[in-house]
Amino acid sequence: MELDQSQLDSIAAILVEKIEGTAPEILERLDRDAPRMLAEHRSLRRGFERRLNSIWGDALDHYWATYVVCTESGEICNDRARTGAIEESDFRFEALTRVHARSCMVASEIHALLRTGHAAGAEARWRTLHELSVVASVLSDAPLEISERYLLHGWISSARDLADYERFRVQLGLEEFDPTEASQIREGRDQLVGRFGRSYKGDWGWSAPLFRHDRIMFSDLEGISGLDHLRPYYRLGSHRVHAGAKGLDLGRVEFRGFDTMLVGPNNSGLAEVGHGALISLVNVTLPLLRSRIEDDVMFLPMMKVAAEMSKRAGDLFGAAAEELARQESEFLAAQRVGPLAVSMLVTGRKAKSGIRWTRKRIERVTSDVKRRQTVVRSKYRKTQAQGGMD
Q1: CA-CA distance, 70 to 49, in Å (whole number)?
Q2: Which of the four, 52, 71, 121, 337, has the lowest number of CB atoms within 10 Å?
Q3: Which residues contact 92 (CB under 8 A, 6 or more apart)?
Q4: Sign (positive or negative) of CA dihedral 338, 344, 348, 351
Q5: Which CA distances in Å does 244 have to 151, 236, 237, 252, 305?
C-alpha cells in the first residue's frame, strides 16, 4: 500500500521528534564519560610532547635562550635610552621599541606552538613576525618623519574599526559606542588625512613618502627592507592564515605511504619556522639597539650575541630534522608498514583510545536511532491496523 503525502509527513515528524529526543541522552553520556576520556588524552599528549622534546629539545631550548637575549636586550635599551629619546622627540626609537615588544610576544607564541607540535600554527604566527621585521627595517633606515607617521596611523585603523562596529552593533547586541570618543576618532583621522594626504588612509599609507605611487603594498615595503627574499615563506604563512584551498592542501601529508589530513599536532616541520622566527626576531632587535648605540657601547656586543645565538639554534634545528628523518627511515626499514590510525600521526604512538571513545559514542547513537525507528514502525503498524493515521 502506498502512503499519501500527509502520512509521509506524519512519519517524518515522528522520526524527527524521536531522533531529537536522543540528544539529551547522548549529552548525558558524554558528560559522564568525558573525565576519563580527557585524562587519557592528556596522558597521550604528555607522551607525545616528551617524544617530540627528545628530538627537538636542544633546538627549542636554544630558541628560548635566544628569545630571552633579545627580550632582555630590548628591555635594557629601553631603560637606558628612553630619557634621551624623549628629550630628542625620537619617534624612531619609540616605534622600534613598540615593534620590538610585540615581536617578542609573537616569538613567545611561536615557541609555545613548536614545543607542542603545531608547526603549521607557528608558520602562521611567523608571518606576523616577518611583517614586524620588515617594518622595523624600513623605520630604521627611513627619515624620522616616517616613524611619526607610523605611530599615528593607528587612528586610521581605529576609524575603520569604528565604522564596522557601528554597522553591526545592533545585530551583535553590542552597546552604542561612546559618542564623544567616536567623534574624537573621526576627527583624529580627518586631521591626519588633511596633514599627510589621502594616500595616508591606505593600509601602509604611513610609508607613502618612500614611494612614487600612492597605493602601497606590503611587497613594496619588503623590497626596500631587503627582506623580500623571504616572500616564499611569507606566502606559505599566508596560506596557513587564510581559508583558501591551498591551505587545505598543506594540511594533507603523506605519512608512511598513506594520504593523511592533519587534525592535530605532529613532530615534523619545526626546523624552518623555528630558525626563521629567530632570524626575524633578531632582525627586529638589531635596529632597536642600533638606533641608540651612542647611549651605551654595550649594545654592539649584545647585537653580535643575539645573531650568533640565532645561528646556533638554526644549526640545532637542522640537526634535529636530520635525526627525525633518520629515525623514520630506520622504523620503515625495520617493519612492514600497514594502515595506521590517524591518531598515530597526532600522538606519535598507537593511540586507539580516542578513536575507541568516539566510535562508542557513534555506536550508541546508531543504536538509539534504530530503537527509535523500531518504535515508529510499531506505532505506524498499529495505526494502520486501526484504519488510518492519527
Answers
A1: 26
A2: 337
A3: 139, 140, 144, 147, 291
A4: negative
A5: 32, 12, 12, 14, 40
284-338 per-position pLDDT tens digit:
999 999 888 776 777 788 888 999 999 999 999 999 999 999 998 888 887 654 4
Q: What is the 3-state secondary structure (H, E, C) of the chain?
A: CCCCHHHHHHHHHHHHHHHHCHHHHHHHHHHHHHHHHHHHHHHHHHHHHHHHHHHHHHHHHHHHHHHHHHHHHHHHHHHHHHHHHHHCCCHHHHHHHHHHHHHHHHHHHHHHHHHCCCHHHHHHHHHHHHHHHHHHHHHHHCCHHHHHHHHHCHHHHHHHHHHHHHHHHHHHCCCCCCHHHHHHHHHHHHHHHHHHCHHHHCCCHHHHHHCCCCCCCHHHHHHHHCCHHHHHHHHHHHHHHCCCHHHHHHCEEEECCEEEECCCCCCCCHHHHHHHHHHHHHHHHHHHHHHCHHHCCCHHHHHHHHHHHHHHHHHHHHHHHHHHHHHHHHHHHHCCCCCCCHHHHHHCCCCCHHHHHHHHHHHHHHHHHHHHHHHHHHHHHHHHHCCCCC
Q: How far is CA 159 from CA 166, 168, 189, 287, 369, in A?
A: 11, 15, 7, 30, 53
What would the grid cell of residue 27 be?
549529552
Contact 242, 127 (CB under 8 A): no
* Distance (Å, whole) CA 114 – CA 122: 6
How does pLDDT run across 212-261, given as a tens digit for each residue?
Answer: 998 999 999 999 999 999 999 999 999 999 999 999 999 888 887 788 89
CA distance 133 to 120: 20
Q: What would you report as the CA-atom Rg of the chain, rounded to the nearest whole angstrom?
A: 29
Mean of all residue pLDDT scores within the chain:
85
**pTM of the entire structure?**
0.81
